[in-house]
Fold Transmembrane protein.
Amino acid sequence: MPVNDPTERTIADRDVEKRWSDPGALRKAAGYCAGVVAVAAALTAVFLLVDRTNPVLAAAVPAVCFLGGIGALTLGYKSYRAGGTWPIWQGAAWFLFTVMLLGLAMPMFAIRQ
């Protein structure tokens, strides 16, 4: 039976110790967030320029951010299972959920007009 090396780090050890650095994962998460926010911004422009009275079009903006946050959590789980730096993706999800909360005001603008 082989003896475990005490210097070998497991996934659980890396999960507890947060002295990790993964610029590649950070760039991927930032690019993902930028893409989701760009789609939400494009939908905002369509809502404002095409039909300001359509609540369904207005609700598409927070829906895109919500689905983007769920997607970021999914990518974070996949990263966790692969032994990667999943907290970066969790932070991306929280950012997108925050943007979603801001976008929830848009359907009220459509109803008021």
Notes: The helical segments are 11-16, 23-49, 55-81, 87-103, 106-112.
